[in-house]
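Morning F.,

Quick status update on the modeling queue. The single chain you submitted on Monday has been processed. Sequence for confirmation:
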Amino acid sequence: MSPILYAFIFLAVVLAAEAFFQLARGRRASRKTAKRLERLALSLEGPRTRPEETSLREELTSGLAHQILAAIPGREEISIQLYRAGVPMTVQRFLLVSVGMALAGLAVGFALAPGSLKAFLFLGAGLLPWMQVRHRTAARMAVFEQQLPDALDLLVRSLRAGHSLNSGLQMVGEELSEPIGPEFRYVANEIALGKETKRALDNLLYRVPSGDLPFFVTAISIQQETGSNLAEVLENLSTVIRERFKVYGKVRAITAMGRMSANILAVWPLIMIGAIYLVNPSYIEPLWTEEAGRTLVLIATIMIFIGYVICRRMAEIKV
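Structure tokens below.
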């Protein structure tokens, strides 16, 4: 290989290592990471609550980096996804490491299969950061939903003790851990800085796509407009959410056999191929040495994938 290709591979590997380092560092709730996420949370405004002066300030922002960032399609969606995943990276750096990993994959592809179009398949390595962000977002939102009943109970006790709503939100933010604690603390800070309660709660909905959170926001909005008993409403909401989790646990226990069957059906062909290869390699080798065998393997792989998806969907019940 030429020296230019070696330099290209080295640069791609460095960028890939930087990507993994940044994503792994986001798992540790360091003080610097927490402060960055807090600044990002306070700057995020939902489309319905975004003031005109904020939009004007974004349009008038100068500088080459900001102009390049403004030209990126979906930059706001990328930013909110990074925040939801708890990854303290800017959009520019995230896109940079994604491109770096794609180039690293392409370099590895050319090293393994020089001059072949199959090398371009390794460009899929650039999707790994996106998959990691998606996985971390789902895991973080699942933890948030599990913590929500405890947060509501703490808020109810605070209201019945005579504290204001903002004090209760601040108490939840101080007592509970990541991710729900900081989110409630951000809402309390926004209200303390002069934002309307409804606007701060709408921003919370924009930051956290939880299925149960809109009921909490609606209860507070109605209480502020009509003066209902907020503590009783939140207590009932907490009870409903806990009961839903109980039903969800029972459903997962009932459908465990279906999920296990899907996993076994997906893995069993690989186990059989490996066992036959150990006993009689010449019997199984036509699957990858002959054109007809490779076609059969491709068809079987597609059918196994379709069957796995169908089995998993049959065993997945939304509660």
